[in-house]
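Support reply, case 0932

Customer input (verbatim):
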Amino acid sequence: MGYIEARDEKIAYIETTLKRINELAKAEKPVEYFRDRLTLLLLACNAIEEGCNLYRDERPKNMFLDPTEFIRFDYVLSQYANRCYLAAKNMIEYYFAYKDTRKTVKHTPQENIELLMRYRISMQRIAARWSVERFMEMFDEGKAENKKKLPRRLPLLKDVMPCFDRLLAVKMGLRFPDGFNIRRLVVCVPPSSGKTYCANVYTLLMLAHHQMYYKETGMIRMTNTADNAINYGSQVYKMMVDPVFVQVFPEFEKYRDAKRQLKMFTYESKEKYLLKDCASECTDSIFMFGVEASINGKRAMLGSVMDDLSGGTDDMDNDELHRKITDKVMSDVLDRSDDDDSPVVIMGTMYNENDVQNAFVNMWSKIGLKQHPKYKNVQYTPDGFCAACLVDVEDGEGHTIAPLLYPDSKLEEKRMYFRNRGKEYVYNLIYRQHRDSREPKTFGYDVLPYQYNEVPKYLLKAPTRCFIDTTRKSGADYFAQPFLAFNEKDGKWYLLDAIFEQKSLGMDSDPYNEFRDKVCKKIISMRCVETCIESNTSNTTTLVLKDRCKELGYTSCKFRNHYTAKKGKSSSKIVQILNMEESIKNNIVFPSEKAKVSPALYQFMQQFTHWNSKMGQVRANPDDSVDSIAKFCEEYIYKKQILGTITPSFSVADMFGVAL
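Our regenerated output:
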């Protein structure tokens, strides 16, 4: 049997075995199949190890084959190993938790558990060949929990690391049917998130794979100072001579000397080093530069990684410096790539709205960015060439996503410190990775004249009205539906709640009508007596919601359309919003930052208060919440004031034909 046939047979066996494990995991009583699943998992792990042996034995014998044939096999085995590693880890934890209480677990042969523990380590090493996360985990093995680097940072890096993995695979010639074949990556994370460590592991993996397959080397590592660049390169060097490295890449065992020391470099110093057995045109493995240095004559054969190009808070307000750095990257660094597939990574923490990360994200936004279906912090261009991973330290309700690194108390302290000094933009840039300007926001909390900490009790059962700003690009735009009640005592409208989600109504985006029903039930629970819906040329959405509310027994709401498609020239959305600015500020009472509101209203207010009219209609300046409030104001406040009408009052008893 030839290599290709043996390889395909091994892959088919592993895939079939993993499917059988999944079938048992879905069983009605999966605990009873613990031993069967364990047996199958051991068979799958053994097959993966045999596949690795096949790969190592056959590579020297088939040098005439396209290297991609072996790269793909190595990659696939790594992906299978990752699945088995996670399964083994879970089964080991389950076994020790229930070995004395569950009959099916208690009678599991001890030798099988010991074998599984060995396979767990083996699968982790195989997976680490193509996984930044697994490689970083290996350096945490054996450390005390409070000394491990990754667990505290994992919530901030969990979407970053898969992007690095994909960059590596694409550079090695692999292509993926999901279209996420990126070559350009922007990463923005809060300080101390481990981004540099993550980038150094990515650099190490790039060097290892290219030396093995193509005898290539040469990566540009650039940061704010030459000293920091040397430190980054030093960490890569130390990891490559660590025993962990050859556990993952046994191909480098051949470079051990008589004293069992790894000697894999032609030369080495703190400024530069070169891996052995690379092509003659390769001069250094990593070119390490400060941002001010000249890079003439250097070629990024494997790619470029730019990490924190500015000096952080020291350079925060230096707009000219950030523009200068961006110009250098665009005009010089990008031209050092060896070909279009050579990846470029721009990493950092946002410190200025004009920094290099923002420059690239804004440029890609004009092309169009779509949400990655799996990684919520990742957006990428339709051609799959460019991606941006912007990680907010807060969740949708104002709490931390990384409590071990940034507990809520620590975040609140920082938030209040900058807010009290009139520099909330500093917190938004550094910790939330929201492009923010030093200029006052159009509807910032500090300029909204009317705010409430608690809703007046008599408004809790008052009728409401709402405006629906529908989505046109599901996954990018927000479906915004604010609910407001009129307070006859002070003549103001109170924003009480909202639906605010990246979802759409329709057959494709809502095939089971789950979101439609959520909208209708919210209309009922909020005692809504009038719903105005943004429409272009059709009233389909209005009819769908009206009919569904009627089916649910609610007929007290009047539905009508707000048509936006008009003949002739119309003003831009920003102008339309600003036309309503004074009406919004003078007539609407918003929840304050201290008010306890629903998660949806919290997100709504976050977007509303951070909108900046001077930034224009770009993805970094979303306007869904602002637009919906402006149109609410136009329909329910401005027009009535112009016509001289008075907002009618309603009796709660007269409104409902159904009990809530």
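We compared this against your earlier run and they match. Two observations from our side: The CA atoms of residues 347 and 443 lie 31 Å apart. Residues 645-660 have pLDDT under 50 and may be disordered. Please reopen the case if you see a mismatch on your end.
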